[in-house]
């Protein structure tokens, strides 16, 4: 049985007219009549009879109509859903992001996406880079930080360089380092003061450790915490000095200041933020819309 014939049958039963059905479906009257005859032949019993210019269903036709109406209703709802997807007024966006990116970079883009497309649901998981790569097939987008050395992706994915960030020293505003250095601090401070270290999977920690290794400096790890917020609170409590993304200190007003960390090359410790995304042909409309928001700022 051809599903289209059943859908046409539902419209004929509702309008009781082949002419009106042809007009509504935007097809010719012979096409409507032909579909009805094929459906009736398949069933093997009369489904309708003509009474003047109208169509009246037989008992068999009335019985079949119940299923045709259900099918027509589902078809109409599926069309509505597709149209809403095309307008990005519905759908789900699943994001995996490292802690720093999830906390300080993405919230404004999520707000903008849901302001422009209120029906889109956004689910964001905070994972380290390894966790994002392990769960990539259950995500629409992955936001990672630091080195991409050794990372291999399937042909369905691409790595998009996004924004550059800088790792800065986090110190109390009355700390002696804040008085000694107004801009850059030397790498040697990591051996002169107790340091609040991020977890080992942190991209920021990897940047600092790489710079220390290149300078031949061996800094002890006495305190290790998870997340930028924990670093800031530990520094605020007087446990030591710390480091974080510069953006995490941008709006800090409660007793903490930042200083740039001078590398061997004489500049700050920068790191690259990247997006892992499906190839364009595999992206949902919500994914495309969110990428456009992120890349518009990232390249501006």
Residue share in helix? 40-55%
How many structural domains?
3
Question: Uncertain spans, ≥5 residues at pLDDT below 50?
Answer: none
Q: Specify the number of helices.
A: 12
Tell me the structural class. Answer: alpha/beta
Please identify, by name, the CATH architecture of the largest domain. 3-Layer(aba) Sandwich
The CATH topology name of the largest domain reads D-Maltodextrin-Binding Protein, domain 2
The gyration radius over C-alpha positions equals 31 Å
Explain what the structure shows:
The two termini are 56 Å apart. Helix 1 (3-15) crosses helix 3. The protein is rod-shaped. The strands form 3 sheets. Strands 3, 4, 5, 6, 7, 10, 11 and 12 form an 8-stranded mixed beta sheet that branches. The protein contains 12 helices and 12 strands. It has 3 domains: 3-86, Winged helix-like DNA-binding domain superfamily/Winged helix DNA-binding domain (Arc Repressor Mutant, subunit A, Orthogonal Bundle), CATH 1.10.10.10; 92-163 and 272-298, Periplasmic binding protein-like II (D-Maltodextrin-Binding Protein, domain 2, 3-Layer(aba) Sandwich); 165-270, 3-Layer(aba) Sandwich (D-Maltodextrin-Binding Protein, domain 2). The chain has 300 residues and is α/β, with parallel strands linked by helices. It is 43% helix and 23% strand. Helix 10 links the parallel strand 8 and strand 9 (223-225). The model has no long low-confidence stretch (mean pLDDT 89).
Task: Describe, in short, the structure shown.
With 300 residues, the protein is of the alpha/beta class. It contains 12 helices and 12 strands.
